[in-house]
Amino acid sequence: MEQHFVEEDYYKEWFDLEEINQYNAIEAPRGHSKSEMFTVWVTIYFSVYDIHHEQIVSSVSGDQTNELFDRIKFFFYVSPYLTQQFKPEGADKNVSLSSWNSKKIVLKNDAIVHARSIAGKWRGLHVDRIVCDDIITEDSTLSDKQTINKFYSAVFNCSTAKKGKITVIGTPLRFSDILFDLKSNKQFNFKAYPAILDFETKKVLSPKRRSFEELLRIKDTIGSLRFQCEYMLNPIDDQSSIFKREWLLRARSDSIDLIRNRQDLKRYGFNVTLLTCGADFAFSERKNANYSVFLTLARLHDGRFVLCNYFRAQGLTGQQQVDKLRELHAIYDYDIMALEENSIMAISKDLQSLGLPIKLLRTGSRDTDNSISKTNAILRMTTWFENNQIIIPYGSDEAKERYEILEQEFRSFALEDGKIIEIGVHPDIPIAFVYAGESAKKVSQAAGFVTSIVR
Question: Which numeric CATH code is attached to 10-193?
Answer without folding.
Answer: 3.40.50.300
